[in-house]
Amino acid sequence: MKKKILLVLLFAIIKVEAQSSAFSAIDSLFEKGRYKFALKELEKVKEPSFLSNYKTAIIYESIDNYSKTAQFLEKALTFKDDYKSKLKLAKAYQRLKKAKKSIKIYEEILSRDSLNLVLKYQLGKLYLASKKGDNAIQTFKYLINKDSLNANYSYQLGIAYALKNDRDRMINSFLDTYEKDSTHLKSIVRLASSFNKLKEKDSTQIFVDKGLELNELEVTLNKLKINQLYRDKKYTEAITYLIKLDTIVKDDTYFKSMLGRTYYNIDSLDIAMKYFRKLSSIDRENFKAYTYQGHILSKQKKYMMARFRYLMATHIGKEKRDEEYYGLGTVNFGMKKPKEAIFYFDKAYQENSSNYKALYQVAKLSDDYYKDKSIGYKKYVRYLERFESIDKVITEFVKKRISEIKKDYFLRGEKLE
Q1: pLDDT at res. 269
Q2: Other C-beta atoms lying within 10 Å of the C-beta of residue 67
């Protein structure tokens, strides 16, 4: 009996030593980067175990095959309830965008170890990624209570409030982040953007400038800076920022668009045209690139070419295209085609009933073109009804023409209506 027990023990020892030797060889192959050979050796293991599945998972993790990583970690955990394997499985699920499965693992671990703040933080970010705003808020409040000096906890709480559209608490959380860490660029960007939406110019510029001191190439802050310079008509200063960013940020058409607009506003039409042509070749859906090309060509009295650009813009554009139709009206007028000009000015007004200039042009050109002055008269009356208080000069002219037309019809004994 003793001999049998001894033989069993010896067999078990030999088996374990053989496995250990095999795993050592596999580890050596993996360390040398021969992962394919290592995987083949693991496939030869006759009796799968926690270790064989875990090592297979680690190899797949190293080559970013997270589907296989998760598959073998799941198998490993059937042999052994291992903390490290669970964490790796949760991270693999995150990579595979299976947030629910990751959350379940983190919640399970934290139910046993509630003081693990690192895991709690990761869980909070997972709640954010899964749009679970209430869970995220609760988690980051807990973390702030445990470590009130950690700026990232306050920042993530701000993101959670943003998910809930709680603007005031969101801004307060970002301000709290900034107070804890004045170099926290993400919170500064959020604050600048938030104050910009609230149209608080001074607060926006404070955080824009602070952020650009930390990173002069931060894209969002540069855009906010450029937009403000553009609104303030500080075009030359805006160009300095635009050129710098345009040479670095290759995949953002904003900078080319703004360079075109800015040069257009300082009458550098050839340079503006260069940027708008680049923009239309990169972003074929950006109909405003063609609109500005039309504006430039119209200013240069190249009416046929301008007409083509405006037509392209109206064809591509899906938003209000009154600016484009107004441009077509302008070039047709320049080509001495008043009837076509009236048609396009009217289309501009139909596209955007707030475009008072378009309605005025329809009225004025109808008055000039048609012998029947009642056509222009009706348009003038409509203009007064809608836009009397908008442009003093136009309104005075419209009132004068209405009076003159009425008087003319009265003297001829004809009715206007």
Answers
A1: 98
A2: 10
